[in-house]
What we know:
protein-containing complex binding; mainly alpha; FRB_dom
Amino acid sequence: MTFSKYAKAHSHAPIHDKNVKAMFDLLDPLHNMIDRGATTLKEQSFKQ
């Protein structure tokens, strides 16, 4: 899943509700995407 699709699929409600666990649950997959590295040609060219 790309970041933009992920962002559209999840609301910002945990931030507004000050729900810390939900915030971490929302951010964890994003950190995994970053750790995985560039996977598409656009990501690879942006990284250079």
